[in-house]
Write a structure and sequence with these properties.
The chain is built from 8 helices and 10 strands. By secondary structure, the chain is an alpha+beta fold. The protein has a 10-stranded mixed β-sheet, with helices on both faces. Helix 2 packs across helix 5. The protein starts with a strand and ends with a helix.
Length: 259
């Protein structure tokens, strides 16, 4: 379980049908990416793309699109270096800084350092990176590892202010990094490689592009379920007040109030 201290309550997160600990020590539990709705709980759902790592390497690679395989073959000639950090420890700060630079380039919020640090303390966070000639990483991937499954939580690269050659290299490196991640996780006994969700609405070009990129790795589309349940009186009161506040302050109203 990943335990995160909230503003007024302690949260716990259970991933991929992970069982509840005997002593959870939290006020609220959030179930993430379950295979079926959790009984007795109101659930939301999302779509994600999952690759079966129990297949042999050739079969996994053949599931990629022809263009994706070509980019990976080209990346092999770039002499890239792969690194997997099963326990990031002192490299977390480096990843945080890289992510925040990526976020500024895309006008996104900075990374959630408390949550990522909590995932690291729980032994669930794994980082991978790809670099060239021993220089700073071109791309970072951050995964949540639970049992025999991994979930791609972040994929970050900072190429948007670079020349066209560097942008093309970074794109190849990103695809190659996904492939190296799959091979490494497969050797570790991981069976499910989850590409971290699909947008159900592809009307926005960027969302359609992200989905297209993920689908180039093959896999199968799965519906996954999420839900939240209080375990203590404090948890029940907190969720009641939170939900009431959200009803009276819908997202559009909150944006107007902040403007």
């Amino acid at each position: 379980m990943i335990r995160v201290s909230g503003k007024a309550a302690m949260y716990g997160e259970l991933w991929f049908d992970e069982p509840m600990p005997r002593k959870p020590g939290v006020d609220i539990v959030t179930y993430r990416h379950c295979a079926a709705p959790v009984p007795g709980m109101e659930c939301t759902h999302n779509l994600s793309l999952v690759i079966d790592l129990t297949a042999d390497e050739d079969a996994i690679l053949q599931g990629f699109s022809a263009a994706c395989r070509q980019e990976i073959r080209r990346a092999i000639k770039d002499s890239l270096q792969f690194e997997l950090l099963a326990s990031p420890d002192d490299r977390l700060a480096e990843f945080f800084e890289f992510f925040d630079l990526f976020a500024r380039q895309k006008s996104l919020p900075p990374c959630d350092r408390p949550w990522l640090s909590a995932a690291h303390r729980a032994g669930r966070l794994m980082l991978t990176s790809v670099s060239l000639h021993g220089e700073a990483p071109l791309v970072w991937h951050a995964y949540i590892h639970c049992g025999q499954a991994v979930w791609l939580h972040h994929s970050v690269s900072c190429f948007r202010e670079k020349d066209s050659g560097t942008r093309a290299l970074t794109g190849r490196a990103n695809r190659w990094l996904h492939w190296q991640d799959m091979l490494s996780f497969k050797r570790m006994g991981v069976k499910r490689y989850d590409l971290g969700g699909l947008f159900q609405d592809e009307s926005a070009p960027e969302q359609e592009g992200i989905n297209r990129f993920k689908k180039s790795f093959g896999g199968r589309v799965e519906r996954q379920f999420n839900g939240t349940v209080p375990l203590t009186l404090k948890g029940r009161l907190y969720l009641h007040l939170r939900d009431a506040w959200r009803r009276w302050n819908p997202p559009q109203a909150r944006v107007r109030a902040a403007a």
